[in-house]
Amino acid sequence: MITSYQRFGMPIPVVVAGTRFGQFYAEAVARNPRFELVGILARGSQRSVEVAERYQVPLFTDVDQVAEVTKFVCVAVGTQALGGQGTELGICLLQTGLDVLMEQPVHYRDLVQLARAASMSKRNFHVGDLYLNLPAVRQFVKMFATLSAISPPTHLVCELANQVCFPLAHLLVKMTGGAKPWSFTEAVAEPDAPIVQLGGKIAGIPVSFTVHNTVGAEVADADMPLLFGITVGFGSGRLSLRDPHGPIEWHPALTLPADTLIPADLGCHPSTLLDQDTTCFIPPNPLSLREALARQWVDALSMDMDAWRKSTASGRAVGLQRAFAAAELWHEMTSRVGAPRPVAAAAMGIDWETVEIARLRSMAWPQIAAESNVTSVASAVAGLDRAAELSMAALLGMHAELRTGMLLADLLDSVEVCPATAHIPRRWIRRLQESGWLTTVDGLVQATPRLRAHLDDLWMAADRAWEEAKQGWNHRLGSPQVLSYFRSHLENLADLMAGKMNAVNLLFVEGSTEQAHALYRDTMIAACLNQYIGAHVAELAAECREGLRILEVGAGTGATCDVILDNVNDLDPASLAEYHYTDISSFFFAESRARHRGDGRIIHHVLDLQDPRAFIQLDSQFNVVVAAGVLNNVVDVVEVLSRMRRVLAPDGQIILSEAFQESALMLLTQAFMMSEAYDLRAATDTMFCTHDQWLASFEAAGLSCIEHWPPDDHPISVLGQRVYILIAPENQQQEEL
Ligand SMILES: C[S@@+](CC[C@H](N)C(=O)[O-])C[C@H]1O[C@@H](n2cnc3c(N)ncnc32)[C@H](O)[C@@H]1O
User: What is the distance in A from the centroid of ligand 1 to the CA of 582?
Assistant: First the structure.
């Protein structure tokens, strides 16, 4: 039946019943221009009052009130099977003359009652299942169909949480065109195990299910170990949907040719399977659960609403047969698997603080870096620079006068600075000139047309640029946490500049080192440089009979130390005699001591590189002196390098990792933690030594660089940091004498 709303293209008024999952529907309605949210139907709890307020619609507690404002209701209230009253509510709404879209799961018995009520009152009833509409699931269904048309699937392997058994059954019904005939073996479970195994056949395809048969003791679906994943076997390989949000993977089958010479002749064997990647990920973009819930779920519900709208118009109940089959299959599976075991949320054992996903990801950084290309990394860096530059322009208060031009001194005067930050606006202006945002005409600083286009709302332009930069940064160069840390400088720029806030507090929020770990360990550049240093030190350790004596200065959070220790210990723990873990502050030592508890080789002490007495107190010579991301912090690198040389054993090496180029991002962030240098950088008025300045500084300190990494053509070279390996020829000569 076509309603007058549809006929005239007006949005269809909708009421959403239920306010827990119902909020997703409310959001979907709010975002779908073909519908208009006109009320919330609930029992009147505090949450329902808040939801109605949030969407600025009335809260109804009675079905008759709903009938006065709409003919369409989305019901997101648990059905009888989940101990809720969704079924009764759905029947009541249908009998009152309203169309109903009801969110899964719905028990077969309830479906029969609801379908009957719909048919008797000539109303449209539709079962919603957002999972079937998720992009990865839809893609998987299409791929499954394509492959099945070529060769029939050999088997299915499914892993699921019992809470999503209905959508998985629904998906299997969709994939196999009805799932029937099906059969099951007896379920198998160890007495206390959280999982139950179930075998059988679906549409004649052998299948095995691993069901996580637990349920949140308080809220059934608040804590779930997983949603579901399916692997389908084909003669030529396996197609896997790892999670309803992806990824989809293809693993080719291993079919070794019957040749005599393997692997010698593999290279010339004609099998195309042998040429396939061992794993192919589709799609490549990772998605956070936050993004999945806020975006994909809402969009998926919106698709169900559109399907419901169309079926209302055509008078045909679309997908109801499939929902019936899914409900039947669901019932069969859950009755075999048995009642889930209630588990208290804490017992689910997930302490997200300690699940260091970023750490796991950082282990893959060297590989990701090797597979990246210079252009993509360079464009991500350019995006960050653009965002940083627009933010600088915004803070400098680029105003109308810049259209015609203003004196540099006036521009500088417009920013409140303290002695420690006085150099920063000057550098910002130079940076903006170099990158084409500002120019100088007749002695006046002027906005270029590029900047003029944004002058009216620079903060908004900067915000947009940061959002764009996110695409290049998140999970490609570092974690979202690092980008948030960079951006946290923006909210505090005026205070940082005026010296009213210490930038260190933005990095170590409330004393936590979490952000610093994300920055110093878990960015692509940090992980790659640290890994390079770790491997290099392990090589030195392999050659050192007495065990290496290592001094690390500015060891901070231990990002480099930990990688070195991993590498050296893998080789042979005895290949390390002592590791002096030092920093200007003892702030980091407690965490490090806890990490290295019981390891007598690690000695913690304070060492200030800029204190001439600090090195004299060290009574020994070291095989390796490490300084990772530290030396640019000192005001005279030559002086400090010379001190480091003096504690170096004759065949010792100094290993540095350092920035070698200016960056707008650093000028906006790290600059607030650094002092103005009076070494070679003073002449160029820069924060970081260039590559040539580093080489000149090494030479001036009696050191010679025997290696640096990465080379210029490496994908990460555009990130502007590298490892320098130095020796002291003078020390070696003295030893020979
Ligand atoms: C940019 S962080 C380097 C990251 C560090 N390697 C890590 O893994 O956390 C700089 C480190 O150098 C230390 N530092 C700064 N100035 C120093 C100085 N004058 N002497 C010794 N350490 C210093 C800081 O305390 C900080 O831990």
Answer: 9
Nearest CA-CA partner of 459 in 403, 401, 404, 387: 387
Counting the structural domains of the chain, the total is: 4
C-alpha distance from residue 468 to each of 166, 254, 474, 664 (Å)? 38, 42, 11, 16
pLDDT for 356 beyond 60: no
**Are 445 and 463 in the same domain?**
yes
548 C-alpha to ligand 1 centroid (Å): 22
Query: Is position 299 within any domain?
Result: no
**Protein residues with CB under 6 Å of any ligand 1 atom:** 516, 520, 553-560, 583-585, 607-610, 628-630, 633-634
Whether 250 and 384 map to the same domain: the answer is no
pLDDT at residue 161 is higher than 80: yes
Residues 382 and 479 in one domain: yes
Residues 463 and 550 in one domain: no
On whether both 221 and 366 belong to a single domain, the answer is no
**Which ligand 1 atom minimizes the distance to the CA of 629?**
3
Q: Single out the residue in 488, 516, 544 at which a domain terminates.
A: 516
- Residue minimizing CA distance to atom 12 of ligand 1: 554
Q: What span, in angstroms and rounded, lies between the C-alpha atoms of 561 and 603? A: 12
**Mutate-to-test residue for ligand 1 from 633, 658, 672, 675, highest number of ligand atoms within 8 A of CB:** 633
Would you state the pLDDT for residue 301? 95
Residues 621-636: pLDDT tens digits?
999 999 999 999 999 9
- The pLDDT confidence band at residue 405, using thresholds 50, 70 and 90, is confident
Q: With cut-offs at 50, 70 and 90, classify the pLDDT of residue 350.
A: very low
